[in-house]
Design goal:
The protein is α+β, with helices and mostly antiparallel strands and 331 residues long. It has two domains: 39-187; 199-329, Glutaredoxin, CATH 3.40.30. The protein is built from 13 helices and eleven strands. It has a seven-stranded mixed sheet with strand order 6-5-9-8-7-10-11. Strand 3 (82-83) and strand 4 (86-87) form a beta hairpin. Helix 5 runs parallel beside helix 7 and helix 7 (155-165) runs antiparallel to helix 8 (173-187). Residues 1-27 form the signal peptide.
C-alpha cells in the first residue's frame, strides 16, 4: 500500500538521521503481515469506574467517543477499504452507535460532543492531509444528521458541526459559503424556541394563523397531495386509536399545510384529508420564499406545545408518534 510504503520510507529516513521512532507508530503503520495491514476495531472508550451515574456515563461517552480513533500518536492505513485502520463499514456502525448515545444526552451536551468530534477529526486532517478521516466522518455527519431521508436526522445535531465547517480554514471561500447557508437553515426554528408564525388558507378560503390554533399540542405537518410518505403518516394518525383520541379530544391540533403552487391539485385532493384537521395552504408562499421554515423534503413534521414552542423539529415520523404516545400517557 502506498501509505504504508511512504511511512516505512519516512521511518528509514528518520532512523538514518538519528531519530527514534516509537514502536507504537511502527505497529500502527503495518497493522498486519507484509504489505497487507489488518483492520482494527473501532476503539470505543471505556467509562471510568469513578463515574457511577448513567447520565454522567452518557456524557462521558458522547464527549470522548472519538478520542481513541483520532489519536495521532499512531498511524493507521487509509485506503479504499479502511479509514484510519477501521473498515468503512465498522466506522459507519460506530458513528450510528454514537448517534444513539447523543440521543440520550441532554441537548447542550450533545451539541458540545459534536463540536468536540469536529475538533478531533480536523486535528487529524491538519496533521496529515492525506488522511481520509475528516472527509469520511464529515460525510457520515451529513448522512445521519442532515440527509432528509435519514431515520435519525437532527438539525440540532448537524448545526454545531456545519457551523464549524463554515469557518474551517481548509475549505475554499465558496465551500464555506455553502456551509454557512446550511448553518443558517439549521438555525431556523430550533428545538426549544418559538415556532415562526404564518398565515394559511383553508379550503373554504378562511384565513388562519399557526398561533391561532388552540390546543395543548400542535402537529405541524408539511405535506403534498398524493405523496406516498404523507399517506403513510395520515394513515397512522387515523388508524392509531391513541393518536386519534388526542385529535378528537382537542389535545392535539394537526396543521396540515401545503406550501407549493399547484393549488388545483391540492383542492382536488382536499377530500382525502381528515375533517378534524386544519388543512390549508400558504397563499402567498411566504414559508418558502421568506425561508420561515427549512422544508428540504416532504413530508416534514414539527411538534409544538401550547405556546408553539418547538418540541421536535423536522423529526422522523416514528419519533413523533412515540412522543405523541408519551403525551397520551400523561393525561
Amino acid at each position: 500500500m502506498a501509505i504504508y510504503d511512504n511511512i516505512k520510507a519516512a521511518c528509514r529516513a528518520m532512523a538514518l538521521s538519528g531519530c527514534v521512532i516509537a514502536s507504537s507508530v511502527l505497529a500502527g503503520c503495518s497493522g498486519g503481515h507484509g504489505d497487507t495491514p489488518l483492520p482494527r476495531k473501532f476503539p470505543v472508550p471505556e467509562v471510568p469506574s469513578i463515574i457511577s451515574s448513567g447520565e454522567d456515563a452518557i456524557e462521558y461517552l458522547a464527549m470522548h467517543y472519538w478520542d481513541g480513533y483520532t489519536d495521532t500518536s499512531a498511524v493507521y492505513p487509509c485506503d479504499s477499504t479502511m479509514v484510519n485502520g477501521v473498515t468503512e463499514e465498522d466506522l459507519e456502525q460506530a458513528f450510528a452507535n454514537w448517534t444513539a448515545i447523543l440521543r440520550k444526552a441532554v441537548p447542550g451536551q450533545a451539541a458540545r460532543a459534536v463540536s468536540t468530534m469536529f475538533d478531533r477529526i480536523s486535528g487529524v486532517e491538519k496533521k496529515d492531509t492525506s488522511s481520509t478521516v475528516f472527509e469520511t466522518v464529515s460525510e457520515l455527519a451529513y448522512k445521519y444528521f442532515y440527509d432528509p431521508n435519514s431515520p435519525v436526522r437532527s438539525e440540532d445535531l448537524y448545526l454545531p458541526f456545519v457551523s464549524r465547517m463554515a469557518t474551517y480554514g481548509g475549505f475554499t471561500p465558496e465551500q464555506r459559503m455553502r456551509y454557512e447557508y446550511d448553518a443558517r437553515m439549521c438555525s431556523l426554528n430550533r428545538t426549544g424556541t418559538p415556532a415562526a408564525d404564518f398565515t394559511f388558507s383553508d379550503g373554504q378560503g378562511r384565513m388562519h394563523t399557526l398561533y391561532s390554533l388552540d390546543a395543548e399540542y400542535t402537529l405541524l405537518f408539511f405535506s403534498n397531495p398524493g405523496c406516498e410518505a404523507c399517506k403513510y403518516i395520515i394513515g397512522r394518525l387515523e388508524s392509531d386509536p391513541v393518536l386519534g383520541s388526542l385529535v378528537s379530544s382537542g389535545r392535539l391540533a394537526v396543521a396540515n399545510i401545503y406550501i407549493d403552487e399547484d393549488l388545483i391539485s391540492w383542492h382536488e385532493y382536499l377530500k382525502e384529508y381528515p375533517d378534524g384537521w386544519y388543512n390549508g395552504y400558504d397563499p402567498s408562499f411566504t414559508i418558502r420564499t421568506d425561508l420561515l421554515y427549512n422544508v428540504r423534503a416532504i413530508p416534514s413534521l414539527y411538534l409544538l406545545d401550547r405556546d408553539k414552542t418547538i418540541l421536535l423539529k423536522d423529526a422522523p415520523e416514528n419519533r413523533v408518534f412515540a412522543a405523541l404516545h408519551e403525551i397520551a400517557r400523561q393525561k
